[in-house]
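[SOLVED] Need 3D model of a two-part complex

Original post:
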Amino acid sequence: MNGVEEAITQAHHQQWARVVAILTRRFGDLDVAEEAAAEAFATAVERWPADGVPTNLAAWLITTANRKAIDRLRREHKRDEKHQEAQMLSADVPPEPLGAIDDDRLRLIFTCCHPALALESRVALTLRLVGGLTVPEIARAFLVQEAAMGRRITRAKAKIKAARIPYRVPAAQELPGRVSAVLAVLFLIFNEGYLASSPHTDPVRHELTAEAIRLARLLRVLLPQDGEVAGLLALMLLTEARRTARVSATGELVTLEEQDRGGWDPALIADGHQLVRERLAAAAAGVAPGRYQILAAINAVHTDARDVRDTDWSQIVALYDQLVRIDDSPIITLNRAIAVAELDGPDVALAAVERLENKLTGYHPYHATRADLLRRLGRSQESRVAYDRAIALTANTAESAYLIRRRNQLR
Amino acid sequence: MQYLISVIDDKGNPGSTDRQPAISAFNERLMADGHWVFAGGLADTDAATVIDNRGERAVFSDGPFVESKEYLAGVWVWEAPDLDVALRLATEASKICDRKVEVRPFL
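Solution:
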């Protein structure tokens, strides 16, 4: 990749959500904002190689997108005078007073996560408009068809426009009721960054993990007493702390077991542990922890161990038991089984994993986990078949490199 | 922006009946705050007639256009700046008239 291409890719990662958010504020229309942002990036692809990369990328992109939006509204003016007048009118209205926090992206997230939208639509729309993910990437994250996901996003945008869902961070008294959908969305954005689902991106998309953490920190300022906000932030920090140790120099995924723990980020781990301790104190005082707090605690146990052999697996399994009681999803059960393998052996874990086959047959970690357990039990033939399934289902380049090597090591 | 608020009753599980004084007080508040455009209760669906004059001649049929346990018992039309305001009022309205309500924007 040459310098200009790299600058454009970087700018897309860092500025997409901001450009969409600012244009949404100005024009009050998600479609106009999204299309103008896309046109601005297309113009950058055309112009930057010849003109050079502008010094202030954000300003260039926002100005260009603004012009594109106005051009588009003028074109529509010729088709539909009334509609266009309304649009231009709203463009001239000064921005409404800011909510509790002056952050355009957070406003965009709360708009996308409005309770009048179905939960799946909230998540999909946020990933699209804030995370800048493509429809195929979102469809993969949800294990659904692209066409269905496209329709869901279109319908959600149409409802925001027709029912006039406002573009703002809700008032303080509305916040607690709206935050759980926002947390779900931030976690999905983070996960897409941590294990990208597309073969056409870096296997780890730091810009997405960084953005999810930045937004979670902002939420924590808004809701300092919310245990799940603290829990999710801790979970992200403790996961992010291991990011650089997770992909080898040759671009292969390195599992938690094989990671060089000296490469973990001690500052992020200290921050994450501090938050987990805070939540443990609250739990001791009788506040029942939610799923993010439990997941954060599991990651705190992992990051406490200086060597994988020192990991307190019984503590991890106990935490998973607690988690299963509030969320008995097959993915949680699968992750619990991975810990059970360390505590009770791969045969016990395999029995638990295989009970999930119907529910997780399209989910590559299911096949990768099963492959690993079969390998440890010496059932090489079956393990090879399971590795093949996992390899076929993952699009992450680092992960397939890892799985292929493990498969080829089988005797 | 105007919103239609449909009051939904259920023949199998009707709401309590005498909500009129509370609804009147709520309507006065809607008027004072500039949200009230129109409101009205509807007679039972037994009193409905459906007319279809798309063919050669008009056909009249007795009863509502859709047969279900749930039916439209009344409507409000409100003026509100955005959906959040309409939803806040509708949340109150549902409590006050002891029925489900649907909020739908006019085009």
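Edit: The domain at 2-105 of chain B is CATH 3.30.70.1060 (Alpha-Beta Plaits).
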